[in-house]
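It is worth pausing here to work through a concrete case rather than discussing structure prediction in the abstract. The textbook approach is simple: state the sequence, then state the predicted structure, then interpret. We follow exactly that order.
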Amino acid sequence: MKTTGMHSIGTLLLMLLMFQAGPLRADALTDQAKSLLDAGKAAAAYSLLEPQEAARAGEPLFDFLLGLAALEVGQNTRAVFALERVLAVDPGNVRARAEIARAYLALGETETALQEFQTVKRQGVPADVSMTIDRYIASVRRGDNEVARSLTAYVEASVGYDDNVNVGPNRNSVMIPGFGNIPFRLSRDSRANEDGFGSLGAGANLRQPLGNGFALLAGVAATSRANFSKQQFDTYNGELNLGISRTIDQDVFTVMLQEGVFYVDDSRFRNHTGLTGQWQRNLDARNQVSVFAQFTQLRYPDQDVRDADRWVGGAGYAHLFREGMVAYASVYGVEEKPQERGVDWLGFSGWGARLGGRMNYDAQTVLFGGANYEHRTYDEDDPSFLRKRRDDQFGLLLGATHHLTSQWSLTPQFNYTHNQSNVALNKYHRSLFSVTLRREF
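Step two, the predicted structure:
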């Protein structure tokens, strides 16, 4: 899921649960109810607690668990009543106040929910929780037509090491069947080059409510990367986005136009123009599904033979675990067709899958990671290698974001890509390590 990604109400509540343990008295009944909730069996927990409400109402831990269970099974009014009893005894209970904000939101009382989240923030929470509250408040207001526009921005700087800056084969020569299997020695710039690098990036996003659940979306982003010694592989890319979204209850529909450019060594290497559509549905507080489709025109100013149209379509699923981890998965199909005649060997079709997640390590640090796979089968025999090219590409991402303050963060991360191909010239692997300092506005 881009980005989006995953700053949600459930994530925030779990961060608060980790931040504030709460010295409340437990017994056999509440222990059993907590175990059921931890196992995702909210209905069973509610059935266990609800008959005891008359006798035990007023006990903070009992009321908190009852409120949480009621909220999970859709008994939102009962959840508010139970959580109000908790706050009457302990007004500083961050956990209960965050849950009651969620209950008010489920009841459609958006302004009351936002007020409760503002109270949570004022009670003093870690920097990453505070930032998450800010982002969540902005997303809650998505359907509020009276709220002013939302504008966010960032700047970032990175330094790192890349053992294949030009994404070339990790070998010095290749055998080409179309030329009698004579070994051809690759030039220095054709094979994999390693180097350190530095980069600068910035971006901004605007969301303007239009009324009746519609909102205008716009964004701009740019990144410039300079290698320490291999300047011929320096890159720059920029992208503009413009779209519209419609929110209807639990469903969000988005259509987005995209325009981008990619430079290598100060020369325009590729342009792309695309259209993306997505449907996203929040099944409940912990589960989200999405379906997406994308069409992109790829144009190479100096290599017209590589011009192509690309289609991608797929579906995704995300789940929030009570332990504080968010996991996501997606599958997709892809097809790329060249525009020039007689070069069908450059076109391909395939499919891919992605898995990933994130979890809170402590109050300021979030761990994240992911893996991806894509299979591509090309349409015709490569005229030089006398076979249809087939690629199996694997990727791995590991990293952590440490929030220095609510605006500043530091992110070290490692990316690994391995492309296995039956065409030697397209077989490569790449390892990239970077550290990024980011300021959000």
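Step three, interpretation. Residues 1-11, 17-24, 143-147 have pLDDT under 50 and may be disordered. The CA atoms of residues 291 and 315 lie 4 Å apart.
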